[in-house]
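Dig into my protein:

:::
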Amino acid sequence: MSQQLAYVIITPYSLYKSRTGGILARLITRTGLDLVAARMFGPSVELVKEYSAAIVSADDPQDRRIQELLRDYIVQNFSPDPKTQRRRRVMVLLFQGEDAVRKTRAVVGHIIANRRGGETIRDTYGDLMLDEHDQVRYFEPAVLAAPNVKEAESKLKLWTRYSNTDAGILDNTIGYGPGEKPQHTLVLIKPDNFRFPTGRPGNMIDFFSRTGLYIVGIKVHRMSVAEAIEFYAPVREVLQTKLTDVVAARAKAALEKEMGFAIPLAEEKRLGQLLGPIYGDHQFENIVKFMSGRTPSECDEAAKKAPGTEKCIALVYEGPEAVRKIRDVLGPTDPSKAPPGSIRREFGQTIMVNAAHASDSEENAAREIGIVNVAQNHFRKVVEDFYGKV
């Protein structure tokens, strides 16, 4: 069966209720598809108008009443807030693989009134409540997904046309109280969470939801060697100096065992000064390879700039004290020293393979968001690589 591209749109209400992680975990684990792109949208009046009009379609096998219900829901809930004129947050996920549209739709589920099960995403997070006269009392679809390949293509092309003007790192979508100063911070869900289809990326997003912060940017990213070198440059400086004593002690023990005589303290320190920077550079190469799939020493300049072979998810969170709140949930670099309930305690393995990265200051957040280029429209590239120019 040929490759297909499928989308899932997470509604503003699902984002607001921090259901993003649970939804993503189900989509990854139950479809086995490759998450190839993700983008935050703040739909304009024009996008809402065009998308809602396209929902009622002869190519959609859903009941006409459900189509009209979805159309009205989109107009009401995707449009900018009529009081504040702030745009609402919408997340669009792209999955690729064999039979992707059907697999995605099966996990999303159908819209059925007064459902009591919990098998699909809509079973768990969506609602359609009717009164005794069969009139709608409450409706929340949780997510939107195409029912067939033709609908997937037409809707994806529509959203792609607005993916520059209505999407990226969203601004002024959240209201704050007097005196509240929102920050931006970056989270990278690291490559070890994408070795095989697992719920770990979604589960981590669930952990981060405890902060009460808002996702305003998302990108599926393959970090190049050049980006990894720039991103972790501050770490390189630390590695070259911080590990001097550790390297000295290890070198002393190894040489004493091999040579059969004691090494004085002064010579031990000299060993550290000699070998520390070399060992630090070696560790730095390991970090770059872990994040990008390649070491700097094996790449020419063109290869260093090419997208890496490893995948991560970059998320921009917004809110008061965002940097501190995210790092509190993440936990310290060493998972063995992380407290119970932290992400690194639950999902980390070693100091390097420690589940996720989070910025340690507002200044570094701005620097890192720029290096990863979260605002870049990779979404459009994926769609146009698949379908051709939109």
